[in-house]
């Protein structure tokens, strides 16, 4: 059966929302098993955008903990609860594993080698968006 993908955004970060999850059936897997092979590209390349790393770090802290934000985002779904509590807990555990892998990479190659600085482009895009809004007002 074909399942139409859907997406949700988090609004806790203001108007700059971002896509986080797609509905692809069993994409969250078993809550009791973390498939470590999916980290192979990160482990091999040891490279991640700085903005992505900072957002992942944010999702590992209160009040933006990934499980809490996902629980809130999915609460209004007509099929709620979409994810069980063990699955939500697994999201936090898996996020920690991703962050740990980035830290291992930084310990080997240094932060400047691992974190690709895309923040200049991000700041420029935010500035341009604010300028466009000001002109419309």
Automatic annotation (TrEMBL):
Residues at which ATP binds: 23
Protein name (Swiss-Prot/TrEMBL): Extracellular serine/threonine protein kinase FAM20C-like
Pfam families from the UniProt entry: Fam20C (PF06702)
Annotated keywords: ATP-binding, Disulfide bond, Glycoprotein, Golgi apparatus, Manganese, Metal-binding, Nucleotide-binding
Annotated GO MF terms: ATP binding; metal ion binding; phosphotransferase activity, alcohol group as acceptor
Species lineage: Eukaryota, Metazoa, Chordata, Craniata, Vertebrata
UniProt cross-references to InterPro entries, sorted A to Z: FAM20, FAM20_C
Annotated compartments: Golgi apparatus
Residues bound to Mn(2+): 23
Cofactor dependence: Mn(2+)
